[in-house]
């Protein structure tokens, strides 16, 4: 009996200036971030931004052009050196689930446990089946399970050998919306229960917000920002992050003080210094929840279109300058298209980009 | 690299024939043109026309009845309609000759009943163009049946129901909607049947109908005129090329015609009373004439009339068996190499190479035989000269006239079949499964043994089986390329039949048919399980 690899939790995974690509063409450029013990990270970006490639590089299926990936004290990949995927102790869940169709559910989960003593492996399989809520499915075959059940088995299979890190490549994209809503919190709970660090790849920001402690927003091979979902939404550092996450519009504005800008909607004050010099022309990010319907306001706009969202209305409003922005209003404030309404701005922190 | 090399070698026979057409000298051409060409072309065209009409008239209605209607015996009939595929055309041809010719039981019975004698009555002459059309139709209609049935079953029920709500009657739905939707599939089935018609040698030779295949072999054997034989093979190749293009085109169109909602229709039109009875008889007839009667006659001859199979027969069976087994091993190994080449490097060059390697399925055995023997004979003579030059010794033929040539020709001919099966199997092993295995701690070798081999086993075995049976049935290439005095079941059955010893040919024929049944049964099983899954 071969001895088991000692099970240790991940302390820290560090990516330093990682570039991945083919034929000298980098698909991922200078990616750097850290993932700490028990954290669930997320690579978020539109399709084709290189997020899956980066994930596969961490798993060991792509080699690095430059940079270094380090898990705890060990360099697992660099330009000249690469640990084989089977020796990295990194589990992976795939977009197309990829259960082995010729093996039963129990055999699928036990696939990575071939080095374990028989009883321990058996015990682990039973424990995991119970954890993912599929006890009694041991001897069924993958094709007889629903999509959601198959994804649970794939998760159990990936975490069975107690990997240091779990990678998930668009794990929910094949499932319908309702199933996804059920599965996402379940899987997050399972990962936390196992104290497993994980990295998720998705293009869906709601999924990223629901799963992740830390989100890295990617576009065209570059990581624009890494931070908590709150930071990503409210303190975007680049124009791409600002427009990719949530609804948002840019107002043309002129800096009129260390924490103040002048815009179509008057002077707006934030609670922090923004660092721009006076009279600089900037674009100011406004979210729909920053703009409120206010009959007493001196600033007005004409409603172009509107959506009823149950608890509130979402209006599209055209300002006198011709700029069109989103605006939330409580569902008691029912106005019709073409009507003029008063608007006021409520911003805590000014997010601005030079024009 | 390996893939491109294999593809280049497999493409050699076609290239040889093509080059011969291009460099052929005018003298040979003029001679062919003045003498036999017109007859070959008109006979081949008439044969294709007749068989084309025949397979459509049998194949399409049977497919419609078994897929869209319900009548007594439908389930059994729907797979039994595939049975004639197991019978090679030359075997059904001489079986019916034995039954229907002057000395056969049918005419003898008529004479005894009426007292007429030879020449005093008219009877259908089976050894004619019409007879050949009938025989080929009987064993080739399953191609059309199979393709059009699949198309009918995939037609979304909703599409058909929508047209009913728009005021079309059942019959109008068939002609206005179901048939046009299924047309690409029907054309594909038709082109497959016509390719087989062009490739047929045994039937037309036995019935003395002069077509390209018989012409090629006669020119080659009778006159030893390789140049003229290659010229003829080249013209035949053009016919085939047209069919290949037509087939590719209609396969392409099938994808556009497939509706998004794939659902086996579960509400069939129920045919009651006499209509059900007629439908049942209509579907039963092709099975009866194309399979039950000939196999019954063959069994009767083999068991009660023929010489007891002796050591000679066992030798024949062994020859056939090991030839087929070796061919299937070689073909499937190469197919595995090619398929993995595509999987590992999905570049355009590799894809094209594999496409070329799979072209042989459309080529008649005679073309491949000519295209094989010409370069191999050339190579042999160069080697003989070379050895003689350096050592003064004389060596025999190394490739041509040996099993190497035969196995090479089989590989060219049957590569496509096994490529299809292997790629189908490999396609089910998604790349992410390899990665899942690796991330769960398996080395690449373990991924191969624990994931790929168990998952591929089924399709590899299927591929081997299909190639095995096809080699067993193959006649013209074997006839041309076999080593001197080396016989197989198919060749012996054909020789005995040509010597008018129809009854003695029965044991070998029966054996070929019975072995040929295995893939047909597999096919029908895979179809029914496919349908069950989609329900």
TrEMBL record, chain A:
UniProt keyword annotation of Nucleotide-binding present: yes
Residue ranges constituting the ABC transporter domain according to the UniProt record: 13-245
GO function term, MF aspect, one: ATP hydrolysis activity
One Pfam entry name: TOBE_2
GO CC, one annotated term: ATP-binding cassette (ABC) transporter complex
Keywords, ordered alphabetically: ATP-binding, Cell membrane, Ion transport, Iron, Iron transport, Membrane, Nucleotide-binding, Transport
Residues spanning the membrane: none
Annotated GO biological process: quaternary ammonium group transport
Protein known as: Iron(III) transport system ATP-binding protein
Native source species: Marinomonas polaris DSM 16579
TrEMBL record, chain B:
Pfam families per record: BPD_transp_1 (PF00528)
Protein location: Cell membrane
Gene3D superfamilies: MetI-like
Membrane-crossing residue ranges in chain numbering: 40-64, 76-96, 126-146, 173-195, 226-246, 277-301, 321-342, 354-378, 398-426, 447-469, 505-523
Main localization category: membrane
Signal peptide: none
ABC transmembrane type-1 domain: residues covered: 41-247, 317-523
InterPro entries: MetI-like (IPR000515), MetI-like_sf (IPR035906)
Mode of membrane association: Multi-pass membrane protein
GO cellular component assignments: plasma membrane
PROSITE patterns: ABC_TM1
GO term, biological process aspect, one: transmembrane transport
Entry keyword set: Cell membrane, Membrane, Transmembrane, Transmembrane helix, Transport
Family that this chain belongs to: Belongs to the binding-protein-dependent transport system permease family.
Protein name per its UniProtKB record: Iron(III) transport system permease protein
Record organism: Marinomonas polaris DSM 16579
Source lineage: Bacteria, Pseudomonadati, Pseudomonadota, Gammaproteobacteria, Oceanospirillales
